[in-house]
Amino acid sequence: MASDGRRAVVLLSGGLDSATALAVARAERFACYALTIDYGQRHRVELDAARRVATALGASDHVILTVDLRRFGGSALTADVALPRDRDPKAMVDIPATYVPARNTVFLSLALAWAEAIDAQDIFIGVNALDYSGYPDCRPEYIHAFEQMANLATKAGVESRSRFTIHTPLIQLTKAEIVRRAFDLGVDPALTWSCYDPQLDGRVCGTCDACILRAKGFAEAGLTDPRS
Length: 228
Prior knowledge:
This protein is of the alpha/beta class.
């Protein structure tokens, strides 16, 4: 779909949610600038998934930026900490060991910097506050606060040249609704990767929170996940 000239920076991890957010931005006729952060995550296979998705969905540009959060640790995704396994999705109300300290704040700040540099007013992020692992930086009140900050802390915002908007098209959707939205928008789930613990044979582990939530979404949507 052709762009109408507006630019958007889209945070793209390579997972199903971020791929769907990119597809939404494309459907809304933004020229999409995909930003993937290589933060030292244990599931680095998602970086390859992000490359595939950016190409398949026609991103105008795709940057993979290295910010090695392993130096800080503090998470099962960036340090030698055990992953939560086999959790009941209904019990995912605490903040799990896979929470990476301030990750979305770091990511959104980098997206904001790129957006200001290319005169984009819009940033898309695939956060979800319904079927998710309890991360505090996925909540609507956090996104609203960051958006306010973005318009206070940038030259473009202070000079009123831009009014930054943080788009969260999935934030109030169930995982099943996200899966259906992905299919409706032409996202190929086989290109995406969600699992926190890739197996040596290239399969998903099936027991981490990301795998469990993804499986729940596909099952409730009545669709088959090519990654399962």
